[in-house]
Amino acid sequence: MQLEKEVTSQVVSGSEVYKQKLQRYEQEFTRTIQVEFPLSQPVCEELSKFQSELGLTNEDVAQIREPIIERRTAEFQQRQEQQRQQDVEEQKQQEAERLRIGRQLDQDYKQNQPPPPNPPQSEPVRSSSSNKLLLAGACLSAIVISGGLFYFNSPHPQPRPVIEKELLTGSPTPVTSPSSSPSLPSTPTAVAPSSFPTVVSPISPGARDQAAGDQAAREQAAREQAAKAAREQAAREQAARDQQALVACSSTYNPELYRPGSPQWDGHIGKIAFNNGTDRTVKVTLYHPDNPSTPFGSWNIQPGDNTLLGDDNYAMDWGIQVDDSNICIVKLVSDFHDDSNGAHFQTWPERLR
Q1: Contact at 8 Å (CB) between 150 and 143?
Q2: Average pLDDT value for residue range 142-170
Q3: Which residue of 173, 280, 282, 311 has the lowest C-beta tally within 10 Å?
Q4: Radius of gyration in angstroms for the set of CA atoms belonging to the chain, rounded to a whole number
Q5: Which fold has domain 256-352?
């Protein structure tokens, strides 16, 4: 009867130990999948090794993993959708700002341009009696006036030729003036009046089209310059935001830029060793990235000690603090080593100041 009780006690004790091992695996798996998801091959191998050390069966491990993976998958998808919506909203805001700047630059350009010159207008020739007389007079070489013949190119009147007709029957014989009289010019010279209007041709349609094309090209160049300036400004603002976010230590711990899937994530996971090279005891506090406002755990490190902060493995996006200093990202204030001592981060107080 006593032997039966001892065997039963051993079975119960073994069952409790196995349950504790299952709980340890569940805690470790939950912590790991919060740090990295989806799990990389090296992390899966570490979890398999941990399972073997605990002596857990694949069936029991599968019952632990499946509900945790389902929850983490839903969280991951929700976070991706939120990030996508945020990116779309930022793109809309940047595009609206770019268009606003483009319109403003285009308006400024148009306001600073001088007005185009008015094309010269040709003056039509009016048809009037005076013009008709002027044109008719221009075609005459001379005007016969009583007492003399006036040529346009001569300032003095010339005597009219005298023609005598024979009274007797016969052919008439013309008699001209004495030889001293100048002879008529063979070809009269007409002098155009200086007051005749000058006709100016208007601007051709081709020239107007060319001017319109040049104006359109200048406006297009202004819009492209405005768009380029808007893109450069947006890039500078984004770079400034990224640089500000990449500060190693700050009073508020924000690990979002270092989470799995971000450009800063490098997948480093390991223990944390803290080397206190000061002459006093320091308090080191860790912060979990899933709960950044609440301390995860604290350790008092004696002067001259290089101590591991517990037996857990931590990812590079965890927060670490010394005494009342700012909270720092583990990746940015420590050196990562993967050697005979295992994967671990090494840091010291001066790195966190």
Answers
A1: yes
A2: 49
A3: 311
A4: 53
A5: Immunoglobulin-like (2.60.40)
